[in-house]
Design goal:
Length: about 290
């Protein structure tokens, strides 16, 4: 249900966008999002920005050549906001930050001969919420008695994947959407009255659990979800470690312009020798981004 945190408000661009030249003389293979590195660390360039208003900070890094990664950290605590670690010279990352709280954009040149890059920083401030705006909520809508899932989806409301013969869960973002649901002839029962509050409570519980153990019972020992940058780092690590049987593949770009990438595995990798193949896809459910 993480997607609900974004709500539906339109972001407005502030005029203080910046384009900053970046130079990293030496390439060093590392995990850029692992931690905030000291200024002057080989293979790394840092730029610090301080949004004047609370909102969204976006960063786009484009290197001249090679493989570059990007990570955004809180300048005071060193906590990672977000990162990009796909293969190639272009990365992007987004941070939610309070006013006057400095953010460090850490650009890492991992490979390649191109020492220069451009870092574009944008600041976006959401409109002030209306006083009467209610928090997003999950409601359960009964089906049957002539009411079908097709009719519910036709309302244009956010019908979740929680659907069975008896009903469906729907995310409502405003009083107007509640009115639309009722006007279409449906009834509902509130399941989660404040989705933002519930999500943040879940995040706090996850963080408390991660801090209470040294390693989880998973084979990897991880005590938190992998991020998108973690997946990119893992994929690049497979190709780097096993070049004889692994190669990177890219099948297109996402709506945000991120590469949709993967790894092909096999002897004579990349060769067209007529052997049967199969594909394994991941992270394809809208509400299950850690999949």
């Amino acid at each position: 249900m993480v997607a609900a945190l974004a709500a539906s408000a339109t972001l407005t661009a502030a005029p203080a966008a910046q384009a900053l030249p970046v130079t990293v003389e030496r390439a060093v293979e590392r995990t850029c999002q692992a931690r905030l590195l000291p200024a002057g660390t080989p293979g790394v360039a840092r730029e610090t920005v301080a949004p004047k208003a609370a909102g969204v900070t976006t960063a786009r890094l484009t290197g001249s050549a090679g493989d570059w990664d990007l990570a955004l950290f809180d300048a005071k605590t060193g906590r990672l906001h977000n990162a990009g670690a796909t293969a190639g010279r272009s990365e992007q990352a987004v941070a939610l930050a309070p006013a006057n709280r400095a953010i460090v954009a850490q650009a890492c040149r991992r490979t390649g001969s191109g020492a220069s890059a451009e870092l574009k920083i944008g600041f976006y401030q959401p409109p002030a919420p209306a006083a009467e705006r209610e928090p997003p909520a999950i409601v359960h809508v009964p089906l049957g008695a002539g009411r079908t899932i097709a009719q519910l989806e036709a309302t244009g409301l956010d019908v979740t994947h929680a659907v069975d013969a008896s009903g469906a869960d729907v995310v409502l973002y405003s009083a107007a959407e509640r009115t639309r649901l009722l006007a279409a002839g449906f009834t509902y029962r509130t399941v989660v009255p404040d989705l933002r509050k519930a999500d943040f409570a879940s995040f706090r519980a996850d963080r408390a659990y991660a801090g209470s153990i040294r390693a989880s019972a998973l084979p990897s020992g991880r005590d938190s979800y992998r991020t998108l940058a973690d997946y990119g780092t893992d994929l690049k690590g497979i190709v780097d470690k096993y070049p004889a049987v692994a190669r990177r593949v890219e099948i297109g770009k996402s709506l945000e312009g991120r590469p949709i990438e993967g790894v092909e595995l096999g002897g004579n990798v990349g060769g067209r020798d007529g052997r049967p193949i199969f594909a394994v896809l991941g992270a394809h459910h809208a509400r299950e981004w850690p999949s």
